[in-house]
Each structure stands twice: as structure tokens, then as C-alpha cells.
Amino acid sequence: MEALSPFAAHFARLVSRLVHEPEHPDAHKEELRSALAQLSNQPATLSLHDLASLVAAAAAEGAADEALRLVGELAMRMAAHSVRSLSFEPALPAREIADVARALAADPVPGDEGASFDARLVALALTGVSAEIGSSGFVRRAALGAFPSKAAPVRTPSASVLAIAGDGPAGAAAAAPRPKRASDSQVMMQDQLMRHASADEGVAALLDRLDGAVKAANPSALVDDVMLAVEDLGNRGQWVDLVRILERLHDHHEALADGDARRAFLMGIRRLQRPVLMQGIARLLPERRDLRASCTRVLVQAGEAGADALIDNLISSEVSSERRAYLEVLKQCPAAANALQHLLSDDRWYVVRNAAALLGELRVVAAERRLSELA
Questions:
Q1: Does some domain include residue 352?
Q2: I want to staple 82 with a disulfide (CB 3.0 to 4.6 A). Which of 114, 173, 301, 305 is the partner?
Q3: Structural domain of residue 218, as residue ranges?
Q4: Exposure of 282 by Cβ count < 10 A (0-12 exposed, 13-18 middle, 19+ buried)?
């Protein structure tokens, strides 16, 4: 197991104390001094992937201790703020370490891809800290300007520089607020960390984990963990991989007669049958002939969500080959008839026209009376 760097240990403790002990500024200063001392001659990088892997390896070996627990908390906070890595230059001002620690200690904004954290960094105009933020890995580099030479001696920070939360009115104003709903924040941070930890996991590994859930003691937990990573595949537009995962879920669900594992696979399927994911899969039909059978299976079994995705793509397409691909799958989709008949009551005339045309092409007998009324 890779050793925990002293800087990571002290920085993790600083962030934790800002969160849980805002009324103890002396403890904050002590950890800040210790972290700063580790940057006297060399830079340091905190990678979310490395931190999460380190904690996971320690837990697997039964070697977790207080320091690793704090590193795990730091990793969760980085994940919640969508921070993939933080790079600290040597001999940087102590204030900048404290500012970044405060930013991580602040409440994250769910789903903002690190935008609020990035805004804090911009406002701080840091000269010695760079951050990789968001799923795309955008890098917020240190601001240009005066920065001490790497060869310059590191000065002992003054009391004013070391002022963190609780040092008078100014320090109190800058203090990171204690989360009002710690349990909700903790759940959200764990969710974000799991997403990141699984983001680099190959699809083959995810499929293996689904296979392992068939005979697992707690299949729901295993499937839930995989779904976090799979949803991230959809967010990144990896539709082919998403189809493979959904097919495997259907395979296991159909092969099992009953039990917790079958229910877990069904819940996983339903979780992925969201309109935005079905839209992405539907768009594969005209592009990937080799995947048409798989996409058809996934879309047909998605019911109305799959039918709606096919109808939307069909109506918006002006390419005859694409329209044929969508239409062929719609003919196999029982839910398409109901979805199209609902559209006959739409206020927009062109939507009604397109729905009527599709019902005619699909030869939906149940819609004949309604269509005759519109004629």
C-alpha cells in the first residue's frame, strides 16, 4: 500500500478541523503550520483518485487508522466539490493553503460540476495552487503575478496570515459555515466519491461486478454501486457502454426466477430507463447497425420512455435512413401506440399531424376512430 504523504495528512486534518471544530482556531493554526512545513522545498499534489484508492486499499488490508479516516473525509469533500486534484507549489503563502481548506470545508453545491468551487478560487486569486475541476478535468491554474521563487526561504507565517476561522470579526466572517444538515451532506459526498472512484473503472469490470451480484449476500448494494458508475457513463455520452450494461441487467433479471438479486437487477434497469438516457441510446440506431438488436431490446423494454425517445428522434430527423431505423423499432414497441395517441390531443397542430402520420404508418387499429375524427 502506498504511504500517505505528510502534507496530505496535515491538510486533511486541517479541513476536518475547519468543518468539525470551527471554534478552535489554535488547532487550525497548528495544522496549517505543519502542512506549510511540508511545502518548503517541494510541491505537493492531492489527487482524488489516489486518495480514494489509498483509503480503499487500507480498508481492504484492515490497516485504516485515524489519519486515513481523515483522508477519506478529504476525498469525499473533494468529490462533492467536483475537484479531481489540487496542486500546491513550494513556498506558497500560508494564506492560500488556508483559503483552499476553507473552500473544501464549505457546503458543496450538488450537481454544479465544481462551478461554485471554481468561483471561490477565482475570487481568491491564488498564486500557488492549481485545481483540476469537473468531469471534463478543467484546470484552474494559479493566477499570474508575484510568486516567491522556489529557492526563496519560507518565512514563518505571522499571526495575521495564520488567522483562520474564529480570529476576531474578520476571521469569523471568513469561517466556513458548519453544515446545517450534516447527514444529507455526508450522503451526497459519499455518492460523489463513489461516482469518481468508479469513473475510471472499465465496462468489463462493471459487467463482472453485475455478474457477481447474482450470488452476493447483498445484491442491492452491489447493483447500486455499479449504477452510480453507469449513470456517469450516460452523463459522458458513452451510449454503447450503457447499452452493454443494460443488456446484462436484462439478462440477469430474465434468468432469475425470484429473490433479492432479481429485484436488485429490476431496480437497476428502472433507474437507467430515464428519458435522457433512452434518447442517447435511440440515437445509436441509425449509426450502429451492429448494435441495433441490442438497442431495440433496451428501448422496447423501456416502455413509454423508450417509445418517447424513438418518437422524438423520428419527428426531428430529416434523413430518410434515420427515420426508417427509428420507425422499424417503433413497430416493435407496444408502448408506442399509447404515446402517439396521447399526442393527438396536443395543442400544436404539427405535433398532431406527425402523430397521426406515425399511427397510420404503424397501422394502429385502436387509433382509427380518433384519426377519423381529426380528418
A1: yes
A2: 114
A3: 201-374
A4: buried
**Which grid cell sits at 251?**
439478462
Spatial separation of the C-alpha atoms in residues 249 and 242, rounded to whole Å? 11
Instruction: Quote the DSSP letter at residue 181.
Output: S
Q: For residue 47, what is the enclosing H or E element?
A: strand 44-47
Retrieve residue 342's grid coordinates.
396521447
Q: Is the pLDDT of residue 87 over 50?
A: yes
Q: Do the domain assignments include residue 105?
A: yes
Q: Is 83 helix (H, G, I), strand (E, B) or coil?
A: strand
d(CA 297, CA 305): 13
CA 375/CA 364 separation, integer angstroms:
16
Q: Are residues 136 and 228 in the same domain?
A: no
Residue 276 one-letter amino acid: V
What total of structural domains would you count in the chain? 2
pTM over 0.90: no
292/366 same-domain check: yes
Question: Rounded to whole angstroms, how far apart are CA atoms 309 and 307?
Answer: 5
Could you read off the pLDDT of 136-156 as tens digits, one per residue?
666 777 654 444 433 333 333
Query: Domain check: are 245 and 312 in the same one?
Result: yes
Residue range 60-80: mean pLDDT, rounded: 80
Q: Based on the domain organization, do 272 and 180 belong to the same domain?
A: no
Same domain, 341 and 230: yes
